Fold this sequence. Notes:
It contains eleven helices and 21 strands. The radius of gyration is 26 Å and the shape is globular. The chain has helices at residues 75-80, 101-114, 128-138, 153-160, 189-206, 225-228, 278-282, 330-344, 369-381, 407-416, 444-461, and strands spanning 5-9, 15-16, 32-36, 90-95, 119-123, 146-149, 168-172, 209-215, 234-240, 246-254, 262-268, 271-274, 293-300, 303-315, 323-326, 351-357, 389-391, 394-395, 401-402, 421-425, 437-441. The protein has three domains: 5-36; 75-276, P-loop containing nucleotide triphosphate hydrolases (Rossmann fold, 3-Layer(aba) Sandwich); 281-461, 2-Layer Sandwich (Ribosomal Protein S5, domain 2). The longest helix has 18 residues, at 189-206. By secondary structure, it is an alpha/beta fold.
Amino acid sequence: MAKVSNFVCQSCGGVSSKWSGRCDNCGGWNTIVEEPLAIPLSGAKGAALPKGRPTRLVGLRGESPSPPRIVTGIGELDRVAGGGFVPGSGVLIGGDPGIGKSTLLLQALAALARKGERVVYVSGEEAIAQVRLRAQRLGLDDSAVLLATETNVSDILATLNEATPPTTAVIDSIQTIWSPMIEAAPGTVSQLKAGAEALIRFAKQKGTAMLLVGHVTKDGQIAGPKVIEHMVDTVLYFEGDRGHQFRILRAVKNRFGPTDEIGVFEMSDGGLAEVTNPSRLFMGSGERAAPGTAVFAGMEGTRPLLIEVQALVAPSPLGTPRRTTVGWDSNRLAMILAVLEARAGVTIGANDVFLNVAGGLRVREPAADLAVAAALLSSLTGTIIPPGTAIFGEIALSGAIRPVSQTEARLKEAQKLGLKDAVIAAATDPAAFRGLRIKSLETIMDLVAWSASQDRGQRRIA
């Protein structure tokens, strides 16, 4: 008897021949579900591929016009998308429930509708009355956004294809969409694949920018990422903590623009408002300077940001000291602590260490190593890093401090916000940046000496 089903992991999309309690690919427990095969495998015994037709081959040299853009007018959203959404593209937007995905997309559609564009919002989770209530609360009910509540992908395509296809369509969310051709529950990998494929095919044929909303799993990944992410042109993640009023929209994949670009929004009563100068946000408030804080000059895509790094080093009452990080890689922190002890002789291992990035931002680049080490030394010794000092650089396991990319953009952002000093790697030419007092460091020992000199200077002032 022919095989009619597979066992598919609902977290990573991995396929196995039999059911097991744990997925071998991602390690998830109880995530494997039996799903029927929608289409027989091409090339299987007894099945022949249809005869194809040759495709015209072209060379690399030649002129190709830049793709047109659908500009929403929401600057931060357009920035992350690479200047606006491209007609005929598929965009996947993921984030935690309640983070603001539906609110932002409804605002974007309302802005496009006020420009005369035909836009459609298809909700598979909320009734029309609920969407209308949100629009009234946000002051968007006067815009000509077309609403529908449907989960059958065939009915959605028939609706979108009626009259003139919309320039932009939102499907909220892709996990609720189901196809009558697949005998599986909505949200399974088979349904996700079939629904996304049909919607993206429609977008390519009709020139509609298709925005798909995706929920995330408990690990922070969009459900079924192996199935969905490679099918779309752009993947955006909405990040943030409900304890903060700020939200970060990050591009992790973009075939029409830069990746790792971010947009910053503030949650308010009137919806999500743009934050035009996020550096002032992530530098923290203007409170009195305290030990354990350092300003890191970072880069998010093409945007330079000044971010406050906070560290607290305290004696531990436990046999195994705690290491807690918020907004930074805990493995990277362990490496910095080991380098400080092994290469600089700083005794810090017996203490509890807490590290936090202000504003709820996640920092991923190794250029933050030097700022983290400076904040740790500041907290350990009780020394205050001089206000108005930007710090960045990568620390090697040998203790050497290495220069990082886009140094000029980082220093220009520091100058723009009134900072006067910078602590960076010694390989950078300090004469190229006038108006900043630059301290060049070669090794982690130089950082310890610089921190000790700040301590002596503060004692003389006291």
